[in-house]
Amino acid sequence: MKKDLRWLINKTIAHRGASSKERPENSLPAFEEAVKRDLPIELDVHRLKDGTVVVFHDFDTARMCGRGGLVGNYSLERLKKLRLKGTEHQIPTLKEVLELVDGKVGLLIEVKVMFSYKKLCDDLLKTLDGYSGKVAIQSFSRGVIKYLSKKCDYPLGLISLNYRRAGFIGFYGLYLNSVSRIKKVNPDFITYYVMDIPSKMTKYGKEAGMPIFAWTIRNQKHLEHARANADAFITDTRFFDD
Question: Which residues contact residue 183 at a Cβ distance below 8 angstroms, ignoring those fewer than 6 apart?
Fold first, then answer.
């Protein structure tokens, strides 16, 4: 294990917080509930056009806010006028989340990338500067991991899945699933779709001492498979609540 990830190993990680109908995903109430349950939190970050780092999963606001628009095109003032899933809750900034969590539980931050990533990475690190809680960062983007490896000491993970099963065919599909892709990035951990584990990537990662994180556990079958094949579990907490 290259960096200390003991705070995530064998843990249930709250996927986008401990969400419910009243506590939308990636909202302050969902994060507050995860803190109450003493669960590490997985969350997603984007960069607004004014440089603010906000916590939101989708690239477009339509699904969560009922009004479409690319997150990266918003200013903070405009974004704060939106509400999550018909509640009174707003899209939080990462700074607001850090103030709420205050190191009480660890954070697994996914960097969401559409095109350019360097400004987002730089502003993410600026926002995290001075934060004393446990943090790990992950992304589907190999470029993000390589860039951040030169900029910070946080544990870094590459997110992946069986791309060929997902419809990526030909050479590109083969490359995305290849061990050489992991070797080029050399991450501290691998985050893989739960039902695609084990794979060539995860087997290589295991042999190289990289913990395997399973995403996203939503039912008993997922949970049993993850316990048999992974080291940490990114879980939709509503599965346990039902």
Answer: 204
Task: Delineate the domains of the chain, giving CATH numbers in brackets.
Answer: 12-241 (3.20.20.190)
- Convert the pLDDT of each residue in 119-161 to its tens digit: 999 999 999 999 999 999 999 999 999 999 999 999 999 999 9
Among 204, 238, 232, smallest CA distance to 6 is for 232
Question: pTM (2 decimals)?
Answer: 0.96
Strands (DSSP E) along the chain, which ranges? 12-15, 41-47, 53-55, 107-111, 135-139, 156-160, 189-193, 212-217, 232-235
Burial code (b: 16+ CB inside 10 Å, e: under 16) for 128-155 equals beebeebbbbbbbbbebbebbeeebebb
Predicted local confidence at residue 116, as pLDDT: 87
